[in-house]
# Entry
Amino acid sequence: MGEFEVHRVRFFGLVPAGVRCLAWQPRSARLALARTDGTVEIYNFAANYFQEKVIPGHDARSVEALCWAGGYRLFGAGLSGIITEYDLARLSTSCSVDGGGGPIWSMAANGSGTRLVIGCEDGSIKLFQVVPGGIQFERNLDRRKGRILCLAWHPSESHIAAGSIDILRVLDVSSGQTVQQIMVNYHVQKVQRECVVWSIVFLASSTIVTSDSFGRVQFWDWQRGTLVESHTVSTSSALSLAVSEKEDSIVVGTSTGATYQLQLLPVRVGSLEKRWVRTKPFQHHTHDVRAVAHSGTALISGGLDAQLVIRSLMEKVQKKGYEAALRKFTFPHRRLVSCARKARLLLFQFTQHLELWRLGSTDKTGKDGEVLPLRRMPEHLVQLKSKGPEHIYCSCVSPCGSWIAYSTASRFHLYRVHYEGDSVSIAKVPKVPKLLLPAYQLQFATDSSSLFVASARGSVHILQLLEPGGCKHLHTLRPPSETPEAVYLLAVSADGHWVAAVGGDWAIHIYSLKCFKHHCTVPNYSCAVTALAIHPITNNLVIAYADQQLFEFSIPEQQYTAWSRTVQNCGLHRLWLERDTHITHITFNPKNPSHILLHDVYMFCVLDKSLPLPDNSALLLNQSTLKQLPETARKRQLHAFKICKKFQPLLFVDLLDENCLVMVERPIMDIKTQLPLPVQQKKFGT
# Structure
């Protein structure tokens, strides 16, 4: 594997925002997730749960509810009182409509996706039609006092159930009138406090299911206005509900961090009579589970601890192995750290500011695993704040450390950084070319002479950087066929001759920078690209896909390399393919051209192409484990994959020089110490 001096960085103070709501789209196998800072993320379950799209948040745009409607159109609403449709190709908002009732607490789409209903702060319930290009107000339904916290459509689309404080109502869609009102507090003895109906589900059997602040999941016969069943699942609030497509399973999220499954099961073996039974409790979160969803094979939950948890149901999964594995996602699948190799600087991206740090240094040497004393401590040089309510889309620092660029939804910013001894000054480049905003990815050339800006419709802008502090638009690269999708990944060759761009349609286009023309397109592969990089010597493009496959494509020869064909013929190791997290960064060691350095959240790997690929009988051992084996056993385990799991969770890895690595970690416990205290629970022995 070779020996490296490692800068182990733990001063990136990232605290991911909590999960506020979820929306599951079964036909496309995609999950929409909204966080408390307004960020919206799209996860593709068919592409190994890859986070394929991210729409950054906005301070004036909270998201309290998400829903899919009109096919694959995504709508959100929040306390700003605005209903927003998201453009999933341009990763931005496409249209906004004022709800007209103050803050919006809830929203739901009917089964056919043609109508939206919203619940507002002033107690109004409003109906909208989904039309091409937006939504259109249709009518107001019966208004009562009290904010509408949750809504649900009956599958027949004839009635709507609405939950509020102490009250559950059923409204007739055609007349707009309330046809049933149920006091949920009536069934609690000696009530001292109000009962908040947090979530609601309307079943085809005309049963309404509610979860409330008393920790109960209750089943109501709405036509008679009577309580059918009640299950107390928590001593605190039951915050969220979701039902399976067949309506035989319900998942419940609580404020204690626990999730529960209720199943509709026969009373006796062979009996036709069925009852709801609480079957499975899960404790995968530490804080409030504000959102849950139910796919055909899994329970999905999101909490204020920022974790998205996907728990497969054993009875629904055919293979009791990798497919049934528990998956937890805390960190974004995109780059939030960039490195200035020559200047040994790191740029950290937060929602509304950037931090520039200088790495520490040492003049000592030591043995393997030894911690070396620092001669100079890491230094926080600059904090660059973004003005306005928009969150930062992407950012980058040049290899020489003299340029910083970032983009929001409506503005692109470029700064020149000057270093004079120990002092650092920063100046904004005044006249930046007007680009097709926003920029989705930024990449500086290796010699810091130009900046590549990934934009909408598959285009890539090239800016030439001028001394002492300016820039001009050089050229715009466009794919041969028009696409609405934005470019989300860029790779630039070290010699400045090639650039590769990946769009939301997963097509990889390669452009020649000598003649500014499209060179070729990598053969289509039916999975999302998670990382790619161009080898500095061979100009081979190394591609990592969401299904953990690796490809190597020769740009000059416009074909896959012999090594890549060997990988596809022999296949990668089973344990490699069954990893839960995706490769997020690839780099190379110019002194060892056969080495490919790559990492995911829980592993750093040096892939040596000169060694044979392991078969499934070989062991993919961590290097620390491998060192404990006898010499003969180590030789038997000699293969291409050299894996290190000492550093976790990994947000970024890069090679500063041939013997020096920088690894940016963000321990989960460091994040949890910055979260609000969870609900206190009595534990045995305390």
Remarks:
- The chain has a mean pLDDT of 92.
- The chain has four domains: 19-243, 244-313, 337-360+375-524, 529-685.
